Automatic annotation (TrEMBL):
Keywords: Membrane, Transmembrane, Transmembrane helix
Transmembrane segments: 24-49
Organism encoding this protein: Nocardioides aquaticus
Region (Disordered): 1-20, 69-90
Protein name: TadE-like domain-containing protein
InterPro entries, per database record: TadE-like_dom
Domain TadE-like per the UniProt entry, residue ranges: 24-65
Origin superkingdom: Bacteria
Keyword Membrane listed: yes
Pfam families: TadE (PF07811)
Length: 140
């Protein structure tokens, strides 16, 4: 094989004018895939946090309604029970809460709104849950 054949062989390996070679594409592809995977993971974790916060709000509203509906229960007792349940140290998914309680002669109603921890600004929000219970009363 002479030098003209080697040079001709080298020329055929180079891209033609206007074509691009694939060097550096792997890095760009990795960044795109990594960004998509991070977004999906963040969304999945945020969904789990929201699910947990929903359960906390439901349980706090239920406990508050039961405390309010007792025969000696008051709106203050239901409110403090619900707030204590939400503010327990084992609830890292909740950053803040508000509780509203009403009691009539036959029904106790507690509404709990919790603010959810957000991993990304567009994934957060608040969750509201309401529970009712019949008021305990003596009937002859």
């Amino acid at each position: 094989m002479n030098t003209s054949q080697l040079q001709r062989g080298r020329r055929t390996l180079r891209p033609h004018r206007g074509e691009r070679d694939g060097r550096g594409a792997a890095g760009v592809e990795f960044l795109i895939v990594a960004a998509v995977l991070i977004f999906l993971f963040t969304t999945l974790v945020q969904y789990g946090i929201g699910f947990h916060a929903q359960r906390v709000a439901e349980a706090a509203a239920r406990e508050g309604a039961v405390a309010t509906a007792r025969h000696d229960g008051t709106e203050g007792a239901g409110s403090s029970t619900a707030k204590e349940y939400v503010n327990d140290d084992g609830k890292p998914a909740v950053t803040g809460s508000s509780v509203s309680v009403s009691r009539s002669a036959t029904e106790a109603r507690v509404t709990v709104t919790v603010d959810v921890v957000t991993l990304a600004p567009w994934l957060g929000g608040s969750i509201t849950s309401t529970a009712t219970a019949p008021v305990e009363r003596f009937v002859e």
